[in-house]
Structures are given as C-alpha cells and as structure tokens.
Task: inverse folding
C-alpha cells in the first residue's frame, strides 16, 4: 500500500501537469501581429525610444513589413543577432520575416519622426543602439549678456544600447519665447547642426561644447537633439534668459486706433529707434500703462483690449 507521502507527491505532480496544460488554453501566447501593432502604436507616442520584449514565433510564420504600416508610419525589419537570424531558424529581410523553427525571439521596436511620417523599425534579436542626453547645461550661468559674445553650452551624449551607434547627427534649434494676448508662443529663432556622423560604442559617452549666437535679450528655449537611423533619438530643452547691456535709443511714439485681429480687439503702439520687439513693448508699457502691451515687432507692440474699444472706434 502506498504511503501517505507518496500519495501527496503524486497528487502535487498531477496538479502541476494539469495547471501547465490548462495554462496553454487559458493564457495562450499573444498573436505576434497583434502584439507588434500594439507595440508600434506605443512607440509612436515615445518617438526615438526603444521598446524591447519577447515574441513566440511558430514555424511557418510569415510577416511582411507592409502589413504593419499605417497612414502615420512606415515599417522596416532589421536583424541584430546572427544566432537568431540563420537560414534554418529565422529569415529576416527589410520587408519580410519567415520563421523556419519555432522559438521565442527577443524583439525591439522604435520609431523616429521624419517629414511628417514616423519611420519605425522592428529589430529581431538583440536590441539596437540607443542614444540619450545625460547632461545639457549653460557652461557659465552668470554670463547671459549677449553683448559680450555667444553663449557657451556643454552636453554629454551616451549610448545606452548593446550595439554601436553610428552616423548620429547632433544639433540645436532655438526658439524665442514671447507672450501675445496672454498666450506664450515659441517663435523659431535659429537652427544649428554642429556635429555629424557621431559614433559611440556601447556605454560610451561623448561631451560636446558649442557656442550659440543670440543677438536679442529675452527668454529663449534651446532644444538639443541627437538622431541616428539605428541609434534612436533624444532631445533636451534648456530655457535661458538673456540680457543685453547696450540697448538702442528706443521710445514709444503713439497709439493706433483699435482694430480687429482674428476676432480679438487690439491696440498697436508705434515705436521709434527700437532694435528688438521686447524693447518696444517695454517702452509702450512705460508710456501707456493702461494697456497690457506684448512683444510684437521691433517697431510695434500690441495689446489685447475689450471689444468695446473696437465698437467705439467703429462708431
């Protein structure tokens, strides 16, 4: 007669087998196509960043990259690991993947934006290179007087992926911050691509030091971007408040009659000898304190006012 201990062991083994068999039906592996489409949708919301996971691919599985395309994205395939992409296991081309042997395969997806279309890549095997800005700062935060020369910046870029990052372009785009009718606006100011074809080994860091010529005093947003087709993308933004020690002889001259501008009643203040829009706005606010003038142009400041002003002017 079996001992109670042996009966307990047999019962435990039987339950384990039943659970494993049941899990195949209750928790089946997700459809690779559905999984990839979902991950690509998420990648478009986190442009430039790598999303890695595993997919169970069955023998005979065939997938064309065009079946993952949408109106907002293109898709290509790439294999980063020869131990997965072999003639007898996984045949991966830029537009087609054909599974020769069932297995769980590491997969990574990533999208970057190019000309209003997201260019997405599905990487079979090892994850790709991934660039990230580790640091971005103004080298001398006490030197913001643009009359004394260009602003000096420092930035550190690192490759956090397991593969070499190649042909990475680095540049900046500067925006002038202004307030119009109480709304903050970013106006393109300058574009500077100062480094091309940067290469980084896995884990390697590279420091960049670069000047940025700004002629105006005011608030600026400096956007620093690193981009590589198979290295991802990362951006950092730094806000800088500049001053100018030598200003022009700017003065407010007169007020124009109220007018309608896009459904908003506005009043313009005309300036003389102003080099910059912010100077004109400052001069107009000083001379006509009853109006909330914002920067508009070097020779004009604009204030949003009550509709009654335009009604009275029209009457």
Result:
């Amino acid at each position: 007669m079996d001992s109670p201990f042996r009966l307990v062991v047999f019962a435990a083994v039987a339950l384990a087998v039943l659970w494993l068999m049941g899990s195949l039906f209750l928790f089946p592996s997700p459809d690779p196509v559905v999984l990839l489409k979902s991950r690509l949708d998420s990648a478009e919301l986190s442009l430039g960043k790598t999303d890695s996971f595993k997919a169970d691919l069955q023998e005979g599985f065939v997938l064309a990259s065009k079946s993952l395309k949408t109106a907002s994205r293109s898709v290509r395939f790439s294999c980063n690991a020869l131990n997965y992409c072999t003639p007898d296991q996984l045949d991966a081309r830029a537009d087609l993947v054909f599974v020769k042997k069932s297995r769980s395969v590491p997969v990574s997806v990533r999208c970057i934006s190019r000309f209003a279309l997201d260019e997405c890549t599905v990487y079979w095997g090892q994850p790709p290179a991934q660039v990230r800005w580790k640091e971005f700062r103004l080298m001398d935060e006490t030197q913001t007087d643009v009359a004394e020369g260009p602003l000096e910046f420092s930035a550190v870029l690192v490759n956090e992926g397991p593969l070499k990052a190649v042909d990475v372009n680095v540049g900046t785009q500067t925006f002038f911050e202004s307030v119009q009718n109480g709304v903050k606006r970013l106006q393109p100011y300058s574009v500077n691509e100062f480094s091309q074809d940067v290469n980084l080994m896995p884990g390697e860091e590279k420091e960049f030091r670069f000047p940025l010529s700004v002629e105006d005093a005011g608030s600026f947003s400096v956007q620093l971007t690193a981009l590589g087709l198979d290295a991802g993308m990362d951006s950092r933004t730094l806000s800088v408040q500049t001053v100018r020690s030598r200003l022009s002889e700017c003065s407010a001259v007169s007020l124009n009659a109220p007018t309608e501008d896009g459904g908003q009643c506005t009043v313009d203040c005309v300036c003389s000898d102003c080099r910059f829009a912010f100077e004109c706005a400052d001069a107009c606010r000083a001379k006509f304190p009853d109006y909330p003038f914002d920067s508009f142009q070097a020779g004009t400041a604009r204030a949003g006012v009550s509709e009654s002003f335009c009604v009275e002017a029209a009457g």
Remarks:
- The two ends are 111 Å apart (CA to CA).
